[in-house]
Amino acid sequence: MDIAALNSTKVLRWNVLRWMCFCFGSLSAIFSAFNLTVNNFYTLGYLEICFSLYCLYTFIRLGKQALQVWQSIVMCALITLIVVFGTYIATPKNGVFIWSFALPILYYLLLGKYPGVILSASLLSLQSIILFEKSPLLPFTTFNLSLNLSLTYISIWAVSHIFEVSRAHSSKRLKNLALLDPLTGAGNRLSMSHYFEVELQDKSQLFLFLLDLDFFKQVNDKYGHDVGDKVLVEIAALLRVTLAKGYVFRVGGEEFALLSSFKNADDAFAAAEKLRSIVETTNIDIDGKVINLTISIGVTEYKNGQTLLEFVNLADKELYKAKRLGRNKVYG
Ligand SMILES: Nc1nc2c(ncn2[C@@H]2O[C@H](COP(=O)(O)OP(=O)(O)OP(=O)(O)O)[C@@H](O)[C@H]2O)c(=O)[nH]1
């Protein structure tokens, strides 16, 4: 499974932007013709032609490649410019300002929660100032109408906000479910293959520590499976805290893998030794039962061209040696 498929936010934004380019680009072409020939709003008309061409370009580009954040920013900026400028030059009865109601939805869908809040609030203030400054104030002669327009805008804004917050929350939950071990919160094998690729982009040397708890069966046998589970949670937390940088994955029942970059093999071995020693000297307190464990670690350095499987297999061989030579050892 490709981890990119779990990034539902990116997929959503790609879809929204692409089809928004198609719809708004077409509409803008129609409006530009209208503004240039009937309304005589030349600046707005030419702005709309440029916007249509930009939409066409972005629509084609997005068909071939992934979404870039700047594309969403430019789209929101351009469409805001057209709506604000149109509101400024046209009289309120032309109704250009009504397009403002669609913008909070686009801000939230394309840019997310915080830009959504800031841009929606800014647009509301800006459009209110422009409309109230206008003379004659025609459709705004009654308090009721202004109130209704403002409340409609705020309702659309609030719904967009609630939708985006819950969408982002579910997307994060889904990603965690797919990538994290539910018991310990460490990464699983899928996230390990992802971060392996990520770390390979780094110039420094990549090391893998394959780490197994010694005689863990005895913990389960003596204290029960529940206590065993809690010990695994504590060990995962200890590994995360002790490993200054890098990633911790649970790759088997009582087996963890740690990926990290170090300047050289000596630094990597010193870090592995530190892990081993900290686990050995830590008393894990589970509901009043004090448990002391040791770990065995196999260490390998990444060699160019290796696959993750080859990398893990080599570390596994080192771990096997550490176990065979008495456990509570670092080998590599
Ligand atoms: N509590 C708990 N135990 C687990 C989990 N997954 C695996 N285990 C236990 O881990 C133990 C692994 O036992 P062994 O493979 O014999 O290894 P060991 O006792 O650690 O001995 P060595 O690895 O040879 O040092 C078994 O008792 C499994 O039931 C889990 O998620 N929770």
TrEMBL record:
Keywords for the protein's UniProt record, in alphabetical order: Membrane, Transmembrane, Transmembrane helix
Domain GGDEF: 204-332
Entry annotated with the keyword Membrane: yes
Coiled coil (residue ranges): none
Reaction catalysed by this enzyme: 2 GTP = 3',3'-c-di-GMP + 2 diphosphate
Transmembrane annotation, as ranges: 16-35, 41-60, 72-90, 96-111, 145-163
Top-tier EC class: transferase
Classification via Pfam families: GGDEF (PF00990), MASE6 (PF20966)
EC number(s) given by UniProt: 2.7.7.65
NCBIfam families assigned: GGDEF (TIGR00254)
Protein name: diguanylate cyclase
Species in which this protein is naturally found: Pseudoalteromonas fuliginea
Taxonomic lineage of the native organism: Bacteria, Pseudomonadati, Pseudomonadota, Gammaproteobacteria, Alteromonadales
